């Protein structure tokens, strides 16, 4: 296990921290506490943090432009204005299904948004992975239990995802101009040992940085599925990484205290914290989401 310089960005413990992203134009990181319906906003230069109450469970966002974000929530996609936080429904998604909520998501270089849903109690095969493309939502992969690790190769020609209970990371060929599949998913790697595959992000070299839930680490895999590095995280349930900083060399990692009793939390005192790792990464900026 590789020990890199690590600091606490936020010691406000997230019940279920997820969905980190970074706006390089404003040096602002964003992430969610899904279970508590909270959106965190952190100015990295000053380390100042604001917490916004959303009134619903939400898990991810995509930057539309300098004034607006697209928020993925349990009942649909909302346009949020940065100026005042006002949210307007853009498209419903599983709005009539009280069993499910959103989970892992990421924007493809084309502006297409891949969106994962799952059961609120991780009900088997209750969720799916969708694509928001040119203002319409289509189903990519149904019967998903816990969608995670959605990310894309630098050339946009490969997408990755997992259904965490299956312990398999899939690679699927994509049309790089649309972010939509043009072939069937194939097994890239099978996870073994402690923990499970959670959120992932691809760097500029095409390597996949994966949060290993339950194992206190970030694993880095090559595009061929070979594990290259394992970085220690000071919380057992690391949930998702994002590249941050002016040169995108640092790694923001969310975590969670979900399903931990008092004894487990006492043994893992930084559970739910949000961390910054000096990872010496070659990261990539997140693309904006396209609405039409």
From TrEMBL:
Pfam families: SGL. SUPFAM superfamilies: Calcium-dependent phosphotriesterase. One of its GO terms (molecular function) is calcium ion binding. The active site is at residue 198. InterPro entries: 6-blade_b-propeller_TolB-like, SGL, SMP-30. Keywords: Metal-binding, Zinc. Its cofactor is Zn(2+). GO terms for biological process: L-ascorbic acid biosynthetic process. Binds 1 divalent metal cation per subunit. A divalent metal cation binds at residues 18, 148, 198. Residues 16-256 form the SMP-30/Gluconolactonase/LRE-like region domain. The keyword Zinc applies. Substrate binds at residues 101, 103. Belongs to the SMP-30/CGR1 family. This is Gluconolaconase. It comes from Bradyrhizobium nitroreducens.
């Amino acid at each position: 296990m590789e020990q890199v310089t690590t600091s606490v960005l936020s010691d406000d413990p997230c019940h279920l921290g997820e969905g980190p992203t970074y706006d390089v134009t404003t040096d602002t990181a964003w992430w969610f506490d899904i279970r508590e319906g909270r959106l965190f906003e952190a100015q990295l230069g000053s380390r100042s943090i604001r917490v916004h109450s959303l009134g619903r469970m939400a898990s991810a966002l995509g930057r539309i432009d300098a004034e607006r974000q697209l928020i993925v929530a349990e009942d649909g996609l909302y346009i949020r204005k940065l100026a005042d936080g006002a949210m307007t429904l853009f498209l419903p998604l599983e709005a009539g299904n009280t069993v499910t909520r959103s989970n892992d998501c990421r924007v493809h270089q084309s502006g297409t948004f891949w969106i994962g849903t799952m059961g609120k109690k991780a009900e088997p095969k209750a969720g799916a992975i969708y694509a928001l493309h040119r203002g319409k939502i289509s189903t990519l992969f149904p019967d998903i239990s816990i969608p995670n690790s959605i990310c894309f190769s630098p050339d946009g020609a490969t997408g990755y995802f997992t259904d965490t209970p299956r312990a398999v990371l899939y690679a699927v060929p994509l049309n790089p101009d649309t972010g939509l599949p043009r072939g069937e998913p194939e097994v890239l790697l099978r996870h073994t040992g402690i923990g499970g595959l959670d959120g992932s992000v691809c760097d500029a070299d095409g390597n996949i940085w994966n949060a290993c839930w339950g194992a206190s680490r970030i694993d880095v895999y090559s595009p061929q599925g070979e594990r290259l590095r394992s970085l220690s995280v000071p919380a057992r349930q690391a949930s998702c990484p994002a590249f941050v900083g002016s040169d995108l060399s640092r790694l923001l990692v969310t975590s969670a205290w979900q399903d931990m009793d008092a004894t487990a939390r006492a043994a893992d005192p930084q559970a739910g914290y949000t961390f910054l790792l000096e990872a010496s990464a070659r990261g990539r900026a997140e693309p904006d989401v396209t609405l039409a």
